[in-house]
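Appendix B: complex inputs.
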Amino acid sequence: MSGRGRLPSGQPTIADVARHAGVAVSTVSYVLSGKRAISELTRNRVLASVRLLGYHPNAGARALASRRANVIALVLPLRSGIQVPVVMQFATAVVTAARRHDHDVLLLTSDEGPQGLHRIAAGALVDGVLVMDVELHDVRVPLLRELGRPSVLIGLPADTAGLTCVDLDFHRAGQVCVDHLAGLGHRRIALLGAPAAVYDRGTGFAHRTRAGVVEAAARHGVEAVTLPCEENAAQVHSRVVELFARQPELSGLVVQNEAAVGPVQAALAALGRRVPDDVSVVAVCPDQFAEHASPRLTSVPVPAEEIGRQAVSLLMRKVHDEPTPQVTLLEPRLTVRDSTAAATGAPAAYDGRAAAR
Amino acid sequence: MSGRGRLPSGQPTIADVARHAGVAVSTVSYVLSGKRAISELTRNRVLASVRLLGYHPNAGARALASRRANVIALVLPLRSGIQVPVVMQFATAVVTAARRHDHDVLLLTSDEGPQGLHRIAAGALVDGVLVMDVELHDVRVPLLRELGRPSVLIGLPADTAGLTCVDLDFHRAGQVCVDHLAGLGHRRIALLGAPAAVYDRGTGFAHRTRAGVVEAAARHGVEAVTLPCEENAAQVHSRVVELFARQPELSGLVVQNEAAVGPVQAALAALGRRVPDDVSVVAVCPDQFAEHASPRLTSVPVPAEEIGRQAVSLLMRKVHDEPTPQVTLLEPRLTVRDSTAAATGAPAAYDGRAAAR
DNA sequence: ACGGTTTGTCGAAGCGCTTCGCCAGCGTCC
DNA sequence: GGACGCTGGCGAAGCGCTTCGACAAACCGT
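Resulting structure:
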């Protein structure tokens, strides 16, 4: 009967909808996109047909004709020293946010490297790119600059000219941790950071946190030691031992390595140092971790959710050719839980209930 | 000069390549796809032009014309009780494997639910779907059956008719753990499993492991207790206490909850039970975890890498209309490390060196 | 009542690619 | 030496959608 039937897959096409509703193909398109005024009557008829036939526009055809794939790429790191749960939170936040902008997410891993990015962008498979785990001197940065496709970085490279970046203000985060410990009267503190490899390859957040810690310590006249820290229990243990060897009076610890949080607590326990009675611990880690530890950890959470949302939102602005700020830094906030208390000599009320001394 | 120039994006089209190489558009297409014989001479000329112009086929156009998107969807869970690092390993394995088949991966989260699947499949955005974290009576299973698009499940639903599923043989995994403990002479053992919520919603792997443990214990005439286990340190501690209250002579522990592994060790230490001297521990968890624990854990690793590869490979077969087995179960293998030793009374040589008693 | 808008709809021209059918040239086989 | 089959290449017809220009019809002010 009709010129074109349904697809072999059984999916109806826009032509089927148009025929069913008794209108032109273009009218259906305009109803669906809202790019031209359509009368209430026609719109309803079309929408009814769409629902009845179970029509879903063909993504390829749409992308071809409109030059918009409605897909963004998310480049995730998968190498050592990355904080898996945080990455996962990012990913889900990004997917959720993207869906709210009617986009899907294509998953790339860093190890495809620059040519992966190039392939995706050149093939018009995606409208924009979101890159995580950016290094200070990342090889992908120049590529992104010249790629001619919208991109947003999660993390800060050394030179942000011509880019759009979002991140937690890790410098402030380091400061905030030290401020908290110093405020409780701790005079000798330490930072147990990311694995050495992470510093070595110039990952921004690790360096920035360390700088924040050092700076705030100096400001408060507090002695601070900083050490990288691997993720296995034995290594963590020896790091902690090393720390107390260097500085026996250590009473405040900042831990920026979610995988090390548990082992650190175990190591302290093994050394007979109670938390928070003898040592106060502040972690930079996802809230979930801090909540599940025992005692519950005072922490500066990494707002993966929020960063992911912001990143998508910025990327969408770029896709639509709207201006965006070059750098967006989120303010860290510290949540006090049960792992920090006033330094020895001052009254401690560390579990929320007033402890009758 | 020419009918069509480059795209506004600056990307050359197949027409540009054809013109540059002095051949027809279709010839370029055939060179690139290899679907028809092309002379050595022509092929080389075309390939040279492709490289010179930096040509990348437009994904949308290709998908439209060929009815192949060269993209697969990966549906990841993001709810409580999932084992984040394992999921991440799956994801990266899937991406890597997909790339080897010249496909990209679209990331979906479970919380978009069935209609997410429907949208993706109906819009022809993807050629096939990979679903993780399948429940015994998963709502998505009927949908997948009728979707008319290739799909592969990672995990086993109750009824696998008409599906393609891959998973570790968790039933065997449970058995293997018990076999190992029983072989070392342990007569009273326990399984600390996934969080209760995971059992409640009928997640296959948890039930299957438990069944395997129970069955093997019965076969060996060993007493076995099984308990679900949450992921926070305090809860784990009380579970462990509960276990020893029920069964003071407990000397073998199977732990299937990577987040609980650390806390379990801490709890045992706190109770004064040494591993492996007093209690042997076997974990079902990623190798990385087992290696990083202290003592290093005897474990049955979840071969995320391998499962991911298999899943992609099966999906590709389905995409190409080749037959696939309904269920593929991977054989578990147990790696002996430092957390298991012969039961008290038998000579222990738990760290590999003969321990002169 | 008449030009001038505005509003709502249509038709058609692509978007860049794949694929089918066709054909020119050339070696092969009785 | 003519029918035949290969090989290698060409041209054109779509794939399903968006978008542009055109154009009736309805509405406006005067």
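Chain B touches chain A through 60 residues (CB under 8 Å).
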